[in-house]
Amino acid sequence: MKYNDDRLNEKCGVFGVFYTDTGKDAVPLVYYGLFSLQHRGQESAGIAAILHPGEGKTERTIECRKGPGLVGEVFTNDVLSSLNGYAAIGHVRYSASRNSGNENAEPFVSHFKLGSIAVAHNGALTNADVVRELLEDAGVGFTSSSDSEVIINLISKNYKKGLEKALTDTIKFIKGSYALVLLTGDALVGARDPNGIRPLCLGKLEGGWILASESCAIDAVGGEFVRDVEPGEVVIIKQDGVFSFIFSEKTRRAVCAFEYVYFARPDSVIDSIDVYGSRIRAGEILGKESAIVADLVVGVPDSGVPAAIGYGRATGTPFGLGIVKSKYVGRTFIAPNQTMREKTALVKLNVIDSEVRGKRVVIIDDSIVRGTTSRRLVAILKAAGAKEVHIRICSPPVRFPCYFGIDTPHRKDLISNANGGVTELCASLGADSLAFISIEGLLQSINPDFSGSFENGGFCLGCFSGEYPIPVAGEHN
Q1: 3-state SS, residue 347
Q2: Which of 472, 475, 477 is nearest to 124 (CA)?
Q3: Which active-site residues does the annotation give?
């Protein structure tokens, strides 16, 4: 069991670079891009690159280096020096329990008669098991339980039809959420699912192009953000330029709302919406919906801090640091049993006693999943001398699993589904009061122009409402 058992966790981040000058090396930029996306996955990292052909050869092959751990742990100087090429893709991964294991580290590479391809993927296919069984019946072997291997085997199977047709046939066959980057012998490709559940964007470099899960990674390598890849769009980058096509009929846009609440870095822009600004607005709306008289408002680092600032602005409550996060305890911190798991908040989060002593404190967090972190925070704040502790959450209650690439507990393990309502939940956490932002308030925080419930404003709210943008099979196993 992991420390992040009390958080919803994004599964992956993807990054790709293509230089039109084949003498340049894309691998270092992919390495730095993955550092910028490390928050999206800390269990494994990998890079695949088009190797320069040897003397007297014209064939371009793809090689990959990947392994368990953080980017800086996997890619030592020796590993990096063994990989170079004018185009490369990278991946950072957080695994759900059903596909943990080093064999699921990405990118995946396939070598076949017509060439080599590599795929890195963020999301989850809702029909992966069905597609896998069909491929196995056709004689295709698998070495992992990853959805990405399903995708690469489909593309390989159809590659004789040409890249564009292989991509179209594959993408029309798979269902669910995906933002994927694909590397061939002469192209870098990006694709986003028809609902746009997972983010993907396009950037420009001097002499090259970038695909990334978030715009912050483009900024980190000195690139220029160009635009978001549209839902249902494929972008193909080659030596002669960039072109794209829409592979699906217009469908309901349903971007994951939790990207804005928690997953994305605050310095990213997703689908033209500033993540930091959305979190500030969430705090302001929380202040309008559920203000309480208090002496101090503090945010649970990191995503709760902008919302705490917004709450303070809306209510006039002074903002303070209050809670400090250790930067050296990652999301993969191991807690071997329930007793220790309940104490890990003491390891990762600590209170500044002098800031909270004798005060009525409001703490702002992004969500409550199992309640372990919230319960411990209330306890350590009161132990530090806080007179009152009031919890405000800048997402609605999480009551349903996610099937689109976020690791969530069983529905029965989500504390908001426990018997009783908010009053009982507040008592179980030991807080003096508890309030969640409304679904309407959340939508307005993400999109200030939202004025109704039509198609949920273009966002997926499945984990709050149980209404998903595409059909799902049922409860997680």
Answers
A1: helix
A2: 472
A3: 12
